[in-house]
Design goal:
By secondary structure, this protein is α/β, with parallel strands linked by helices. It has 2 domains: about 210 residues, Rossmann fold, CATH 3.40.50; about 150 residues, Aspartate Aminotransferase, domain 1 (Alpha-Beta Complex). The protein contains 11 helices and 10 strands. A 7-stranded mixed β-sheet has the order 3-4-2-1-5-6-7, sandwiched between helices. Strands 8-10-9 form a 3-stranded antiparallel β-sheet, with no helix packed on it.
């Protein structure tokens, strides 16, 4: 996945919101907004400011990390507060993850504009699902402002979620990389709600499914504090698995998810084994640029980690790549590293790696040194199944 320029800029759905409000004479209706720092127009106006200017903005709702990215580290809750105008700001990553009746009372419309990065683990899409479910139950209409999937609309990778392992990092049947936009996911999620909300979709203009984010011409504005660049999003679907281990995923550095390491790593032997396994599996390998780092917070805080930055090839499978690495780490370092114990993202019993992977098969394969080829073959069947399953919900050719 490489950067590319674009003469035609993709316009996000939020660019059509003001016209939608005026055309439908909604200026005096009561609105809530579900937003975060990247919820801005092409002219850099934030969703809350836009709605305040054109209608009656009554309350705001925010996902993980807060409306303005206030919580830096992972799994840090934030609680309800008020903005400078005295309006309620409701946290959907704290005491509540599904909006309460009281928080939605008196609203006519809920506008949702969330920048998703295309991976099943990214919690924003489940905040969307819970919001749609609550609005459906209470008769609040939902307006979803669509945005590009940074990884494109064609890329699908990984196993479908086993619903016995559903959690806040996997609530509905999706592969790890789903290739859908936020609005498409919203339409897909409706089937899982007992009383679906009335939904209005503000589609993007000038977006093609084949486009990666740099090809849209849009600015990258941090959807969450540890997602600073498009390159971060490219490796994230695989590197997020490290959250479920004692190994560092680069949090506490300037290159989270791109850096990987531990104090006991020896990259010469890792790289040699990695290239051998990739060749056997016919996977294009990443280039490892060896890089030591000392995290300022999180795992190995203040310790020197022997690590590397990963530079992916043009055709890259982040989940397969990470599983190859974990398989090698277990082979080379055995019990020098471990799977993390719960709790993790509001799951208190199942292992974090199993809820991220969508089941225990990945972990069992790695721990027993079993065939990665066989594991990946089971994924191919799921990927093919989901490609057919999602067709009904796709909004763009």
């Amino acid at each position: 996945m490489i950067r590319a320029s674009s003469k035609v800029h993709t316009q996000p759905g939020i660019d059509s919101l003001e016209v939608f409000i005026k055309k439908n004479r909604l200026n005096k209706k009561s609105f809530g907004v579900l937003c975060h720092p990247s919820s801005i127009t092409s002219n850099r106006e934030h969703l809350a400011t836009l709605v305040e200017r054109t209608a009656n903005l009554k309350s705001l709702f925010g996902p993980q990390h807060g409306i303005y990215g206030e919580t830096q580290d992972n799994m840090i809750e934030w609680q309800d507060t008020r903005d400078l105008q005295g309006r309620a700001i409701h946290s959907l990553y704290g005491v509540n993850r599904k909006p309460t009746y009281e928080s939605l009372k008196g609203l006519d419309y809920m506008v949702v504009d969330l920048f998703d990065v295309g991976a099943r683990y990214y919690t924003f899409i489940y905040t969307l699902s819970y919001m749609m479910e609550a609005c459906g139950e209470l008769g609040v209409e939902v307006i979803i402002c669509d945005r590009p999937n940074p990884l494109g609309g064609d890329f699908i990778e990984g196993p479908l979620l086993d619903l016995n392992y559903k959690s806040f990092v996997g609530l509905h049947p999706l592969p790890v990389c789903h290739g859908m936009t936020v609005a498409e996911l919203g339409l897909y999620f409706q089937q899982f709600h007992s009383k679906p909300a009335k939904v209005h979709i503000l589609k993007m203009k000038s977006w093609k499914r084949s486009q990666l984010y740099p090809q849209t011409g849009a600015e990258w504005l941090l959807p969450s504090p540890n997602m600073p660049t498009f390159e971060t999003a490219v490796v994230y679907p695989g590197m997020c698995l490290l959250e479920a281990t004692s190994l560092s995923e680069g949090r506490g550095t300037t290159r989270p998810f791109e850096l990987i390491g531990a104090p006991f790593f020896k990259w010469n032997e890792i790289e040699k084994e990695y290239l051998r396994v990739c060749k056997a599996l016919k996977l294009k390998p990443v280039h490892f640029h060896r890089q030591g780092f000392i995290p300022t917070f999180h795992k190995f805080k203040g310790e020197l980690c022997y690590g590397a930055i990963q530079i992916p090839p043009a055709r890259f499978y982040p989940l397969r790549h990470m599983v190859v690495l974990l398989w090698i780490f277990r082979k080379l370092y055995k019990n020098q590293w471990s799977w993390k114990e719960p709790p993790y993202e509001y799951e208190y019993e199942k292992l974090p790696i199993d809820i991220l992977a969508g089941g225990p098969q990945m972990r069992e394969t790695i721990d027993a040194g079993l065939s990665l080829k066989s594991l990946f073959q089971t994924w191919q069947a799921d990927e093919k199944t989901f490609r057919k399953l999602r067709k009904t919900y796709l909004l763009y050719k």
